[in-house]
Amino acid sequence: MNCFVGYVPGTIKKRFDSIGVENTEANRAFYRDLLFSTKGLGQYISGAILFEETLYQKSPSGVPMVDLLKAEGIIPGIKVDKGLETLPLTDDEKATMGLDGLSERCK
């Protein structure tokens, strides 16, 4: 099973607000560390799609989040698009944005 663990910034804010936790980079790192360092997680999840923040983020103990996933045998990936936008001159038709600059962002 694969999972999406990066959370859209607005989504993680809602989750934190619901439990009275401030949406800071440090709290997001703490949350991800708690999730990614769960022993045996790799028995149930084979891959994880991350947002850019998570890809480069370190746990509170200084271990890269990607390494926490790899230690459990989970293959890290990254969300490469920048979301949906309405196409001009359409009836609310959407298109995936951000793929045009993908090669530059991957360098």
Automatic annotation (TrEMBL):
GO terms for molecular function: fructose-bisphosphate aldolase activity. GO terms for biological process: glycolytic process. It is an enzyme of class 4 (lyase). Keywords: Glycolysis, Lyase. Pathway: Carbohydrate degradation; glycolysis; D-glyceraldehyde 3-phosphate and glycerone phosphate from D-glucose: step 4/4. Gene3D superfamilies: Aldolase class I. Its EC number is 4.1.2.13. Belongs to the class I fructose-bisphosphate aldolase family. This is fructose-bisphosphate aldolase. It comes from Toxoplasma gondii TgCATBr9.
